[in-house]
Specification:
alpha+beta, elongated, 14% strand, 80 residues
Amino acid sequence: MKNLKVKTPHDGWSVIPAFGQMAELVDSYHACRYEVKNCVRQSSSVDILEDFEDLARQLTTLCEEVRSSSVHLVEWELDD
């Protein structure tokens, strides 16, 4: 594992593209989350469970890719 120094916290996460993919993935399950959080019953409980399992699998895969990459830790260098 290697630490990559980034000058400010505003430089973005392009150094770890999987973070953007993870955020988009979570956003793509908004309807499922909304349905559960707001007690809207449009999907079966089986479908909701399968959606959350699929989300967990995909997030786990992306996390494993980040962990196995040579650059995955970012330290901020903040000016005092």
